[in-house]
Amino acid sequence: MDNCLELTDISKRYREGRIDVLAVDSVSLIMHPGEVLLIMGPSGSGKTTLLSIMGCILKPTSGEIRIDDQIVSNMGEKELPDIRKKYFGFVFQSFNLFPSLTARENIELLLRLKGFQKDTIKQESLNLIEKVELAKRANFLPHDMSGGEKQRVAIARALAGAPRIILADEPTANLDSRTGKEILVILRKNAVEYGKAVAIVSHDPKAEAMADRIIYFEDGRIKV
Amino acid sequence: MSQGKALMLWLACKSLLFEKVRLLITIIGIAFSTILVLTQVGIYLGMMGNATSIIKNSDADIWITSKNIQNFDFANPMPEDKINKVRAIPDILWADRLIMTWGFLKLEGGGQEQVQIIGFNPDTGVGAPWSMISGKPSDVKGGRYMIIDKSSEQRLGTLITGSVWELNKKRFKLIGLSDGIKSFTTSPIIFMSYEQAQNLSAGFLESTETSFILAKLKGGKNADMVISELRNSMKDNDIFTKNGFMLKTIKYWTIQTGIGMGFFLTAILGLIIGGSIVGQTIYANTMQHLKEFGTLKALGAKNEDVYKVILWQAGINATTGYLTGVVLIFLLREGIERAGVPMHMSLLIIISLFFVILLTCLGSAYFSIMKIKNLDPVMVFRT
């Protein structure tokens, strides 16, 4: 099986006031295409820090990150935005949609950021909004949509430009049980049908049923 | 425009239009700041234009004045036969005398107004009014005739050609009306023949004295060389180029009296107010949308891309606010000028001030940019 994201001996240390915090301690893991990886663990265990490192948003203190055999952990802030743009799609707990943009425009924003041509953008954003079954809400602003609808838009945005890896941080935390399940199904479908490597950080027990692999995280370490 | 720039402009516009009330408040703030700056600059330039209009509109290249003169309006007498020294220089095409003095004009109701009197040679027209509504400058020749500027009607009452007025207890006939010739001091300007002005100023000006000698250079001759020659032969006088004398007058009113400084400080205050409004609005907007900017960074936008959104917003605010202010100024201008306040407005001033306002607004986005620079995209994972 191919590796699309490989973390080797990753640690993240930071200072909180006078205290030295080891948020991630010598973590190694691999993500494969078509696989849903579920990261579970108690609050404050370092799951989100790990997800930020996996998504090249946060630089590790030590260790190596490889994407498609390319070492990215030594890259600087000048190169990393392009890496994030090329390889990753992000789904956030509180959706993080742009309130001034409609559902479709939120997706178009990412396609434009990725340098897609104007005529492709229209068609691609329409395809994505249909994929999350929100075609009728395409021109709605986020404040006119339900939490579930917003998260679907966020997933469509994460899929824009066909990134290989989807990272989702507590994607069901702000949703009711049924909507949360629907969101997990969409994420699973993208792994199975489109070969995306999907990592989900969640407390939600429903997510366990959707995962191919589960890792438990505690005190910055993967619990064996 | 590159795709990246167009995207950030689009995002900036969307964000601004999403919060219409905030946008409106910002535009109103910048518009008032623009009005404040433009009126102060316009009035200052208008007043300086009035202070130097006679120098500017004379055909002379060189102005010879009494020693240590402060400005055009406060001329001291000097011997008029000095004109011969000027005429003796081969590079001088012509030289003529001009009197600038003060008098009191009796009004119809019995009161009086202080007036500025310009005595010029009606045969040559040097120093004569350059814009006439009725009559000709040469009509002042041969008697007690005068030309008054139409704009003086507010202070003097209706001006009818042919009417007779008492000036320094002597009767003068109004034979023409000039147009838009005003003094810095706002005193009405009266033009008359050189001889009449000299007679009228007895006690202040002797019959052999004048206020200024004006000279014109022959074509292509170097003013500096002639001025240097004149300075050697006329040590009791000051010699200026036309621009030099205008500058001397402007400097006096601007720096020595502090009047110009007052206008300058108010204009700066306007800029500070405008800049603060935009800066405060943009900063508040940045703080409110910090998560969106963080998301943009997390999704792959570079810091520079996010700066562009903020700078576009500052630029759009500045442009719309400035244009609104300019439109309002043009609507108010007639009223301001009708009230007797001179206001100079030109395309150059409007364009220059636009760049000043734009730079102020862009500069005021600095704190927002610093906030974005230090923004950790990890914050997008926090609820």
Radius of gyration of chain B: 29 Å
Shape of chain A: globular
The greatest interface between two protein chains, and residues involved on each side, is: A-B, 33 and 26 residues
Could you state the oligomeric state of the chains shown? Answer: heterodimer
Any idea what the radius of gyration of chain A is? 17 Å
Ranges of chain B where pLDDT stays below 50 over 5 or more residues in a row are none
Number of strands of chain A: 10
Mean pLDDT over all positions of chain A: 90
Overview of this protein structure:
The complex is a heterodimer of chains A (224) and B (383). By secondary structure, chain A is α/β, with parallel strands linked by helices. In chain A, 34% of the residues lie in helices and 27% in strands. Chain A has helices at 47-54, 80-87, 103-113, 118-131, 147-159, 177-194, 206-210; strands spanning 5-16, 19-31, 36-40, 62-67, 70-71, 88-91, 165-169, 197-201, 213-218, 221-223. In chain A, the strands form two sheets. Chain A has a six-stranded mixed beta sheet, sandwiched between helices. Chain A has a four-stranded antiparallel beta sheet with strand order 2-1-4-5, with helices on one face. In chain A, strand 7, helix 6 (177-194) and strand 8 (197-201) form a beta-alpha-beta unit. In chain A, helix 3 (103-113) runs parallel beside helix 5, helix 4 (118-131) crosses helix 5 and helix 5 runs parallel beside helix 6 (177-194). The longest helix of chain A has 18 residues, at 177-194. The mean pLDDT of chain A is 90. Chain B is an alpha+beta fold. Chain B contains twelve helices and twelve strands. In chain B, the strands form two sheets. Chain B has a six-stranded mixed beta barrel. In chain B, helix 2 (20-57) crosses helix 7. The radius of gyration of chain B is 29 Å and the shape is elongated. Chain B starts with a helix and ends in a 10-residue tail after the last helix. The model of chain B has no long low-confidence stretch (mean pLDDT 89). At the A-B interface, helix 1, helix 2 and helix 3 of A face helix 1 and helix 9 of B.
